[in-house]
User: Fold this.
Amino acid sequence: MEYTIHFMPIFSRSWFADLKAGPPDVIFGIAEAFRKDSNPQKLNVGMGVYRTEELEPYVLPAIRKVH
Assistant:
């Protein structure tokens, strides 16, 4: 016995058709600037969790000072 499934839209237009885009997220702009930077010593501090080259947790000095 063979069955055929037919998908029928509930609405003829998307619920999101009238939704307007909000402003771009600043974090994505920072990430893009980081990718474009050719400085070999650049450091990405956008993620919030940092590790040393030995993969040990690293707390930024400014954070350590405030905490």
Remarks:
- The mean pLDDT is 81.
- The CA atoms of residues 39 and 64 lie 26 Å apart.
- The longest helix spans residues 26-36.
